[in-house]
User: What shape does this take?
Amino acid sequence: MSTMPTLIRREFWEHRALWIVPLAIAGLIVVAAMFPHADMQLDSADVATPQKHLAVFAMMHSALMIPQFLLLAILLPYYLLDCLYAERKDRSILFWKALPVSDAHTVLSKLLVALVIVPLGVYVLTLFTDVAASGVLALRMRNSELLRMFTSWDTAIWVRTQALILATLVMIVLWYAPLAGYLLVISAWAKRNAFLWAVLPPLVAIVIERIAFGTSYVARFLGYRLRLSGFGKSIVPAGTGTDAASMLDAFRPLHALTNIDLWLGLLATAALVWLTIRIRRHQDES
Amino acid sequence: MNQIIRAHALSKSYRGVRALDGASFAVEAGRIVGLIGPNGAGKTTALKAILGLTPFEGELAVMGKNPYTERDSLMQDVCFIADVAVMPRWLRVRQALDFVAGVQPRFDRARAEGFLSKTDIKMTSRVRELSKGMVTQLHLALILAIDARLLVLDEPTIGLDLLFRRQFYDTLVNDYFDKERTILVTTHQVEEVENLLTDVIFIQRGRIVLSTPVEEIGTRYLQLTASGEQARLARQLQPFYEREVFGRVVQLFEGRAPQELQPFGEIRTPSIADLFVAKMQGEAA
Assistant: This one.
């Protein structure tokens, strides 16, 4: 008897893309490291000072994560939109409801998968990918003096980089949590075509506002919540240089916690999750 | 008296339509109860209320609990099949066992596996690869391995062919049912469950028309088959239902002694199906 772990396993049985895609990408990255890159252009000026070298080192090791997290930005919304919709579409909801699992448990298991398990799992996966790919690169380039400088391992910087990435990841997840809540509500509520129901209401709201009042507050608000740039201002202070070294030094992901909008978003998330649980509880399919 | 379900003045409306209209009934432990009614009579609504899937008016206690507010703990003792042929299509057989074992403390995995080993179902198959009959068997294997006190079945065999329907009910009675357990089944195919029920509850337009143990039907109701002439005479005893079959008249009486009716023709205890039809048409008239 272990309800929550069982519910979480269930999600990965149904939505296999959640683990297959990140594993496939990780495999591709390691394989890609084995082949020569014709366009790899290096300038010794980039590594002229130790500080610059560290910055480049950090950039290189965080770059490996980018494809993974871009993919999550597609996989997770799709998952959230589908997770409570599919069980109604295939009429299996009564099979699930026949078992002693509360609606709150069910909904929370899905939120947990999307906001904690998958992001953290992918993060850990990228750590292994990074070590494996770096190892492959180091082996291949052991004869190139210049490249050795790039690939020379620096554990302290590596740990610092990974910690920064983890902190950023947590902040990004917290920032987008209300979006997850919104998608869950639509997923639990839409009778058909959950995707349209998720996308159309905001678009309609924007258009109506534009026509009726000639303003664009909704569009601006949504743009602010959906883009990372507004959120990013609080973690990269204004006036930071654009070169890698000063970026790395100034980067303070935990500063996002001082952004009141992040906390307001979390409040909204709690409300949306509560609403989702109520919708699933009261669903009366006949 | 050990009442598993007790409903008093149970009501429920959907957008102004009364699906349940003051229904009162009780289900005792160790019985197989058929909740029988035409389509739209309120059967499924009653089950949904019993299973805590929908709010209701009136009083309803399932094993002493309010099913709506105490649903989560109640479902440990209650098992429920809406339609045996519907299970999530992506689910593998082994995953189904893992899942139920993970969330249902009363699940006996070995028992379910034992049941499955007698079938052609493979542990690695997905539900979508199984035939409808196999899905039924899988669903049964899961349900039979749960030591629930109340099993609720809502039109469980819809869409199955006769062989699987028969097999389903046979397994239910032989491998599952005992004095500790209670089964509540709704169906509009009365003939199918007639021989296994211990109690019947007839429901029509949200009201309970009849609620009786099957063994008492014989003492309360009699069916008389007589010629037209005799039937006219018997009509003085006020049958509540009458129909003509091959030139002979079939009449149903309530509360008459066999001696009163014997002079007019053949008498026997009406089948549940006959009684159902009589009650439904009698009420409708």
Summary: The two ends of chain A are 31 Å apart (CA to CA). The interface with chain B takes residues 1-3, 5-7, 9-10, 13-14, 87, 90-92, 94-102, 282, 284, 286 of chain A (CB under 8 Å). Chain A is about 75% helix and 0% strand. The mean pLDDT of chain A is 82.
